[in-house]
Design a protein that fits this description.
alpha/beta, nine-stranded mixed beta sheet, 35% helix, 24% strand, globular, binds NADP nicotinamide-adenine-dinucleotide phosphate
């Protein structure tokens, strides 16, 4: 597939681009400053800003089969990037027929009753709200073939290749494992229409994705 990665220069994005290339996909790497990164051979950088209008995004997505949204503003621009930026990208994707959409979200983003319970979520309510609306739009309004990946806390540590699905409580995930789940979702059509809640665990990622 030709896959557009939005947020390609981020911590998850870089890992994801590499994984998609290894899996044999053609990748377009989107962010505001994609030219500042040394990409693997065959990756096409594409400047995109979530403050742009939808038609500009649609032009960037033309010819792509799938989109992965792994961008985020680290709490600084939640409405325009994490929430409406994601929605504009979904609408642009739909308009050009890039129908497969994989969203990096956050654990329990669609279950607001959990936000006060989990230590890692208690102080990021505005962020949770932004992700809630982006996830709800994707699942219920976009008309896309969606998968939503909801990890717990991201950690800069080596991947284990193993995860736990549907954890009862928060925890953490090495960033390479989250990227592997996002890339794997593209190659597992059974994940379409599913929310994948995850943290580090004991099940090999490919096995876990096959069971979703
Ligand atoms: N931190 C956690 O523990 C945690 C847990 C669960 C889920 N998540 C989710 O995982 C996401 C990715 O995490 P990360 O650590 O990889 O993030 P990151 O390193 O901060 O990367 C964010 C990416 O978004 C891009 N971006 C930001 N604003 C943009 C804009 N206006 N237009 C276009 N691109 C923009 C950045 O690129 P440029 O600056 O080049 O534009 C960058 O590529 C987070 O945003 C969050 O939603 C995080």
């Amino acid at each position: 597939m030709k896959v557009f990665v939005a947020g390609a220069t981020g911590r998850v994005g870089r890992e994801l681009v590499g994984d998609l290339v290894v899996a044999g996909h053609e990748v377009v790497a989107g962010s505001r400053h994609p030219e500042e990164t040394d990409w693997p051979t065959g990756v096409t950088p594409c400047a995109i800003d979530f403050h742009d209008d939808e038609s500009a995004m649609a032009a960037d997505l033309k010819g792509c089969d799938a989109v992965c949204f792994v961008a985020g503003s680290r709490g600084k621009d939640l409405l325009q990037t994490d929430a409406f930026g994601a929605v504009k990208l979904m609408r642009a994707a739909k308009s050009v027929g890039a129908n497969r959409f994989v969203m990096l979200s956050s654990i329990f983003a669609m279950q607001s009753e959990r936000w006060a319970e989990e230590p890692s979520l208690q102080n990021i309510t505005d962020y949770n709200i932004a992700k809630f609306f982006a996830d709800e739009y994707l699942a219920n309004i976009s008309g896309l073939e969606w998968t939503i990946v909801q990890p717990t806390l991201l950690k800069e540590e080596p991947g284990t290749g193993r995860i736990e699905l549907n954890p009862e409580h928060d925890g953490s995930n090495p960033i390479p494992d989250v990227a592997a789940v996002l890339a794997g979702a593209i190659d597992h059509p059974n994940t379409i229409g599913k929310v994948i809640m995850m943290r580090s665990g004991g099940t090999p990622i490919d096995e876990a994705l096959s069971e979703v």
